[in-house]
């Protein structure tokens, strides 16, 4: 018994991490399915509805329903990627060529360490976050690590030793640099309000969510939310900012020379970024697991309440993923120079102005209320 | 001369310059299309409606009495722009069809190379016997080049029998019985 009690602190975090990774990877797979389904609905198509698994697909009513919803499609896609002929073009720089997908995926998965996804009330009656590592610098960690994903894209573009992937990689890096500034600056007012001097939370994401118990920050800081959202679209390389791929002018962009599972990993990395981005936006601006603005959480302190808070958080994240796909079929792709001018000439000055404005308001507030 | 009307171009308002109302309008439009029924035809299960005058794969047809209409005049072979049709004329055997033998010919071989065919329909236009028709078959594929050459049996199998008001041989027989053998 002593051995088990002693080894729990080591075993439990590993188990939690494994559970979180499996949930996250499943979400990635099914957001690919969501992308295909929502795209088809918006375009008046049917979408994937044929893939069928031997036993599950033959359950009388549910089987047909699952087949027509395409629920087996991610498995079929994955198997297809696994069993395709693995082609390595002759002219690539082999080591880096294989390294690039890994570098693209790893940061996206690393950021989930600091992602709080629910809350529980501990024995002392204090609300605690459900998170793998509750560090005070959560947001900085996410900003720092998630931007590393672009190294994978740049490396893929360069190692492919081909013009179009190279251009895609260059564009991705330029875009990342341009929007990273606006993104960071748009977050500063948020933390200036949420982590006021004397608060316990610092830059942790849990603190931001706790600060939104009454009003969500999207209502208090709409400009920050807008800038952050636009920058998020640019950072995740999603349409209308998918400069790195842009099939119309770059064939396939940075992954033109990639096939089968290597391409699949790029795909998973993109969706991992989307899920992470959605989750961060929900935490920062949409109140995390808080029920509604100016409504107290209806769930209790017990286990059920914890599960409900996680479910409510997930529902918001799913809505954000849907929003990403929805935007994709609404806005056309920007031209490259438009992307640059939007980032440098509009978003960055706007973010700086927003920061200055908020600083002034806080200074005045402090002067007159003290 | 038509008068050119110069449209007045208003400067954008502040709201329009931010593009946000326009983006929201676009989101509304795409969301409303999402709630509509899909318009896709699920092809292998659902077949499209083929119009009557559709030009699909050329086929040979028989008359309602089951006789082959083609008399191997080779007009279609002659007119075929990509030279896809190849006819070997042959005689009709006297035992099988005594009333047609020595009157008409029939093709011994009739090949249409579907790799060459351009579906122009000139063969159908030119045929004096209305024996070759471009029908509603739109999907033809094969694994080899040889497989894509439709021979006579294949062409009759694809073509089948079309309704025909003409009944050439019935008319000839009736005229003969009335004592007018050269009708």
TrEMBL record, chain A:
Any one Gene Ontology BP term: aerobic respiration
Subcellular location, principal: membrane
Recorded GO CC terms: plasma membrane
Transmembrane feature ranges: 6-33, 53-76, 96-118, 130-156, 215-234, 271-292, 304-326, 346-365
Annotated compartments: Cell membrane; Membrane
PROSITE patterns per UniProt: COMPLEX1_ND1_2 (PS00668)
Family annotation (InterPro entries): NADH_UbQ_OxRdtase_su1/FPO (IPR001694), NADH_UbQ_OxRdtase_su1_CS (IPR018086)
Reaction catalysed by this enzyme: a quinone + NADH + 5 H(+)(in) = a quinol + NAD(+) + 4 H(+)(out)
Keywords for the protein's UniProt record, in alphabetical order: Cell membrane, Membrane, NAD, Quinone, Translocase, Transmembrane, Transmembrane helix, Ubiquinone
Principal EC category: translocase
Topology in membrane: Multi-pass membrane protein
EC number: 7.1.1.-
Subunit structure: NDH-1 is composed of 14 different subunits. Subunits NuoA, H, J, K, L, M, N constitute the membrane sector of the complex.
HAMAP family: NDH1_NuoH
Stated name of the protein: NADH-quinone oxidoreductase subunit H
Source organism per UniProt: Coraliomargarita sinensis
UniProtKB/TrEMBL annotation, chain B:
PROSITE patterns: 4FE4S_FER_1, 4FE4S_FER_2
Source organism per UniProt: Coraliomargarita sinensis
Subunit field text: NDH-1 is composed of 14 different subunits. Subunits NuoA, H, J, K, L, M, N constitute the membrane sector of the complex.
Cofactor: [4Fe-4S] cluster
Stored SUPFAM superfamilies: 4Fe-4S ferredoxins
Its membrane topology: Peripheral membrane protein
Family: Belongs to the complex I 23 kDa subunit family.
Protein name (Swiss-Prot/TrEMBL): NADH-quinone oxidoreductase subunit I
Cofactor note: Binds 2 [4Fe-4S] clusters per subunit.
